[in-house]
Write a structure and sequence with these properties.
6-stranded mixed β-sheet, about 25% strand
């Protein structure tokens, strides 16, 4: 009986200590701080490519020509992910379009919401529940004059001591009427991880 009680007491002590040792602590961090958890594409990389591409486009002499008389309407195509990683490229697209919209130099059409807009217009026109004098008619929407699109690609090299990943992010602005590319730029990121040997 004594052995059972002692064994139970030791077991409970181990459980309590293990529970204390594994207690997770959650805290807020700086969303703009450099993230170095691993060499995969992360938040710092997303912010870097979105900021560099946006700044490059806004500082381009082409933008002065395009925006001289009005704010051109742009359609942003979702960035193509040509890497071997699962990367939420919609977040890059959102960051780029938001920064450009905030600049006050462009207007945007959101192609990802066209189907939802069509459903609402159908409801207003055919539903019989909306005042016909206030219903929005078909054929009034504004089409894009330019398309902004891009690619994210990577090259990964590794051996037993070192891993290296190179990312290249490219964007282009195309005039939809002429098919001419009015602006293009690219930015690069290289990340390396080395395994420390014993005694290092």
């Amino acid at each position: 009986m004594k052995k059972v009680i002692v064994g139970t007491a030791i077991g409970m002590t181990v459980l309590v200590l293990t529970g204390c040792a594994n207690k997770a602590v959650v805290s807020y961090g700086d969303a703009t701080a450099v993230e170095t958890t691993d060499i995969n594409f992360g938040s710092t990389d997303l912010q870097k490519v979105a900021t560099q591409m946006t700044d490059s486009l806004l500082l381009s002499p082409v933008v002065g020509t395009l925006t001289a008389n009005n704010r051109p309407v742009v359609f942003v195509e979702r960035i193509k992910n040509k890497t071997s990683e699962h990367i939420d490229t919609e977040s890059i697209t959102d960051s780029v379009s938001t920064k450009l919209l905030r600049s006050g130099k462009f207007r945007f059409v959101d192609m990802s919401r066209v189907e939802a807009a069509r459903e609402q217009l159908n409801f207003q026109q055919k539903g019989g529940m909306v005042n016909p004098n206030k219903a929005i008619a078909f054929g009034k929407q504004v089409g894009a004059q330019y398309m902004l699109y891009g690619n994210l690609s990577s090259i990964v090299k590794s051996n037993k001591d070192k891993s290296d990943v190179y990312y290249k992010f490219t964007m282009r602005l195309m005039d939809l009427e002429s098919g001419l590319v009015e602006w293009a730029d690219e930015t690069e990121i290289r990340k390396t991880r080395e395994t420390a040997g014993i005694g290092w």
